[in-house]
Amino acid sequence: MNLNPHAPTQPYRGITQDPPWIRRSLGGIVILFLTLFLLLPLFFIAAQALSRGFDAYLAALTAPDTRAAIRLTLLTALLVVPLNLAFGICAAWAIVRHQFRGKQLLITLIDLPFAVSPVISGLIFVLLFGAQGALADQLASAEIKIIFAVPGIVLSTLFVTLPFVAKELIPVLQAMDRQEEEAARVLGASPWQSFWKITLPGIRWGVLYGVILCNARAMGEFGAVSVVSGHIRGLTNTMPLHVETLYNEYQGAAAFAVASLLVALALLTLVVKACMERQGHCAIHQTRSGE
Amino acid sequence: MRHRVRFMVAGIVTVWLVLLTGSGSGVPLAAAAEVTLLNVSYDPTRELYQEFNAAFIKHWEAKSGDKVVVRQSHGGSGKQARAVIDGLEADVVTLALAYDIDAIAKKSRLLPTDWRTRLPNKSAPYYSTVVFLVRKGNPKGIHDWNDLVREGVQVITPNPKTSGGARWNYLAAWGYALEKFDRDDTKAREFVTRLFKNAPVLDSGARGATTTFVERRIGDVLLTWENEAHLAIKELGAGEFELVNPSVSILAEPPVALLDGVVDKRNTRKVAAAYLEHLYSPEGQQIAARHFYRPFHPEYVGKEVEQFAKIRLFTIDERFGGWESAQTAHFADGGEFDRMIAASRGAP
Amino acid sequence: MNIQLHDASKEFGSFRALDRLSLQVPSGELTALLGPSGCGKTTLLRVIAGLEFLDRGSLLLDGRDATRTPVQERQIGFVFQHYALFGHLSVFENIAFGLRIKPRSQRLPEPEIRARVLELLAMVQLEHVAQRHPAQLSGGQRQRIAFARALAPRPRLLLLDEPFGALDARVRQDLRQWLRQMHALVPVTTLFVTHDQAEAVDVADRVVVMKQGRVEQSGTMEELLANPVSPFVADFMGGVQLFHGRLENGYVRIGEVRVQAEIPRGNRESAGVGVICIRSHDWRVQRLPGGEESWQTVVRHARPQGAIVRLGLESLQGAGRFDVELTREQYEQDRFQPGETVFAQPSQARVFASGGP
Predict the structure, then answer these.
(1) B204 touches chain A (CB under 8 A)
(2) C46 in a domain, yes or no?
(3) Which chain C residues contact residue A187 at CB under 8 A?
(4) Same structural domain for residues C17 and C41?
(5) Does the pLDDT at position A252 exceed 90?
(6) Secondary structure (DSSP) of C173-234
(7) Minimal Cβ distance to A233: which of B4, B73, B86
(8) How many other C-beta atoms can be found within 10 angstroms of the C-beta atom of residue C261?
(9) Are C105 and C211 in a shared domain?
(10) Is residue C96 located within the same domain as residue C148?
(11) How many whole angstroms separate alpha carbon B58 and alpha carbon B66?
(12) Which of A282, B108, B119, C164 could disulfide-pair with B123, CB 3.0 to 4.6 Å?
């Protein structure tokens, strides 16, 4: 017998399926909306970026300040994403698997970066670590520079991207069958082995999706980073900040060139996500071992 | 399944590493005898310091044998001052207003309060003024300040609350009105109010206002620094804009200073001092003139001086009793400008 | 592995799941834990496995105190009601999991692991699905894989938590037989939980009936059917009717009817209330009145159910309604119809004095 209860069934044709005219007009509205607010701007960016020719486009992307900005953006993402991944896994585990006082507070705190304007987030760090800030003396005597240097950029990016992995993982972990972990334990796995071999693979699509979102936001963050950056060309400009700098210098084509790189990154993120979702569709049925 | 995921992760990490190492220039690891200076400046000086820094680096290497790297940071003058106070480690500041550097001196004590006396001309190696930029052919026939308050004329200026350049525009207009209406404050207030009523949008910075006028093609006349006006014509459309010199305008002396607290800590005092002094040198003055800043030493500069039209210039001290009192009266919370905005919101 | 529990107690908040429970499960047998929902049977199973820990009391496995031993050290196999197969692993890897997870020093070499997995796949007759994933299998196949997975590391005790509960009736029947066969092949001590008396009776050598966290009775199926210690056990083993009656002078009175019944020693001279237990098939039904111990009843319904016919009778003498099971042949002789007055006489009754179910 080879039943698969989760195999795609025939398209539903019951009374709740919309008639064709509704489907077409809804589809039309969505396509119109996407075209106006997504496709046209993307097309515009590409057109502007190449308006001075392909050589100028390449020159803009390989200029030293641009490369420095790319490097800083990548470095920030490389630092921020693993840290938030670790935090997200720990927070999701604590929230889903444990009872403790203050759990609701923790959940609310995790939501905080979503609620606060990114500019405010940046300002918090200036107030804490700036030369007039609360920790100014300690930092000065330890000769640690946070604001207006790379650590400040990483910290503020870390703050605004904090919730992404955790919020992805909490429902995924909740939905996971705990009996799989119990089965692993009975078969001889230690708690750590059970987590690593059973739990993590069980939530892997949530993890990957959270990482992708976190990465996209980390690379594209503007407001918070702008406040703490100092805008030192070639040193503390991330790609989004550099786009602003170029634009303000009447180097419109170069600004759009760098912007097109950010767009390419975003599109890559979406493509990876789509591929993973398609794989996940098959995999999600495989992670659930019962009905 | 597991293998595919691992492969993808490995692929992504590889791509990142390649990009990371490929994008070469970044923070140079402490090279021997290489000094870095940070020049925190305001918006319009980007092009000026790009050329000047290259020249100074060559000059300094020839003179002392040391390599210098000059890093630039640009933004609104007040915002940059605020950043320096909050810890942005600038070796030198080259801002729009003495007031901003005074604020740094007062709040952070990184330099003495008598800093202006340390360099010639009260630490202003170049000066500038406010002029008008209009569209080709000057279709609205704008020739002087009184044309700006005419019905149907749209004036583009940044917001005085956030932009140093905008405060100069404001004070230039007020100063003109004081002259025209025999020092009658009420009439001057009325004049400036009508001028700002003619402003469809107030950008946060001088460069933003220029972008609004030039690229977004909003407005009939842009009030801007002289150098910005010349630059716009040169870079963005020689045939598209015209420069109009008003009968009278304000004398702007953007000052420069080094921050003792920073240069002593970083051991860059010698280089920083030389950097600022070089602004006064023939080479420095020529570069300034090339970027449409009026040089303090016109005798060092050749025929480029002729591009600067002769405008009667008044100072802040003589019309307003100094920047501090102008700031308090006009731009502080509850000052003239705030009341102007509040009244215009109430009035139809 | 034999199991011993002494005075075992476990609470969840204010709910007492196990209440000073004591039990012995001999080695090598297939034992069923039977009881209604909430009686603590699943908790007991999980305590033995190590997935829960006792609040009080002790658990001994093979004579050694295992009350606090961590679950991964107990060498027990566990099969869950909803299989709990590892969705991201193939069937082969699922079964191999217990073998691969062992520390290097104890792990079998790879060829032996492969051999063992293939051996188990052959045992459950599912060699052809080795590379599939659990989502691609039917419920019955998944449960057999779950068995194979639990048996792979050669546990000395196999625990099954309502293993057939999630399957449909036909598959359940097949798997019950299959389980008996497996146990015959691999006689590891097996303890399984069920609320279905028929299943317990069908599969197990011994049955433990539980109620409210305690063991009511434990023994072979025959013992429990022949000598239930309480109306609850009798009722749970099934196929009985319970009546409330009075004991008088050696006789039992239900309503107006007198019943000849075995009265437990020690109660013969006493008077009081009691519960009388009569098995549904221990009745003779006829149209003619019998003696004093014949009950006058009206037929309410006659429902054929496979090999038997269930007669619903209502006593006209105050004994209430009850069901009587007749074989097909017996029914065919008389063909009682609803509305008829008939006389029923129990051939055997058991009395439990002064106690209700």
Answers:
(1) no
(2) yes
(3) 72, 97-98, 101, 149-150, 153
(4) yes
(5) no
(6) HHHHHHHHHHHHHS--EEEEEES-HHHHHHH-SEEEEEETTEEEEEEEHHHHHH--SSHHHH
(7) B73
(8) 21
(9) yes
(10) yes
(11) 10
(12) B119
- For residues C297 and C311, the answer to whether their CB atoms sit within 8 Å is no
Identify all chain B residues contacting A286, using CB atoms and an 8 Å cutoff: 1
**What is the per-residue pLDDT across C125-173, written as a single tens digit (0 to 9) for each?**
899 999 999 999 998 899 999 999 999 999 999 999 998 888 888 888 8
Same domain, C171 and C245: no
Q: Is C58 in the same domain as C139?
A: yes
Q: Nearest-CA neighbor of B269 among B91, B113, B111?
A: B91
CB pairs under 8 A between A and C: 104
Selected residues 93-112 of chain C with any CB under 8 Å from a CB in chain A? 97-98, 101-102
Q: Of C226, C259, C291, which residue constitutes the final position of a domain?
A: C226
A234 — contact with chain B (CB < 8 Å)? yes
Distance from CA of B72 to the nearest CA of A (A): 6
Residues C64 and C210 in one domain: yes
Tell me how far CA of residue B341 lies from CA of B260, B294, B345, in angstroms: 40, 33, 6
Q: Are B279 and B288 in contact (CB under 8 A)?
A: yes
User: What's the gap in Å between the CA of A77 and the closest CA on chain C?
Assistant: 29
pLDDT, residue A291, reads 35
Write out the two tokens for C117.
Answer: 């997995």
Confidence of residue B261 (pLDDT cuts 50, 70, 90): very high
CB contact under 8 A, B88 and A230: yes
**Residue A193 contacts C where some CB pair is shorter than 8 Å:** yes
Q: Do A186 and C139 touch (CB under 8 A)?
A: no
User: Which residue of A lies nearest to C85 if distances are taken between CA atoms?
Assistant: A289
Number of structural domains (chain C) is 2
Same domain as C209, residue C294: no
CATH number of the structural domain spanning residue C341: 2.40.50.100
C-alpha distances in Å from residue B149, one per residue of A277, B155, B164, B196, C168:
61, 9, 22, 8, 88
Torsion of CA B56, B57, B58, B64, to 10 degrees: 100
CATH number at residue C136: 3.40.50.300
Question: Are C309 and C282 members of one domain?
Answer: yes
Residue where one domain finishes, among candidates C226, C251, C282: C226
- ipTM for the predicted complex comes to 0.79
Residue of A nearest to B206 (CA): A248
Give the chain B residue whose CA is nearest to the CA of A269.
B12
- Cβ distance A187 to C149 less than 8 Å, yes or no, reads yes
> Does residue C206 lie within any of the structural domains?
yes
Q: Is this structure's pTM higher than 0.80?
A: no
Q: Give the structural domain span for C334.
A: 239-353
- Whether C234 is in a domain gets the answer no
CB contact under 8 A, B107 and A132: yes
What are the two backbone dihedrals, phi and then psi, of residue A220, each rounded to the nearest 5 degrees? -100, 0
Query: What distance in Å separates residue B156's CA from the closest CA in chain A?
Result: 17
Q: Does residue C327 form part of some domain?
A: yes
Residue B132, helix vs strand vs coil: strand
- Please spell the DSSP secondary structure of A93-104, one letter per residue: HHHHH---TTHH
Is residue B91 within 8 Å of residue B258, measured between CB atoms?
yes
Indicate which of A195, A282, A289 best probes the interface with C, i.e. most C CBs within 10 Å of its own CB: A289
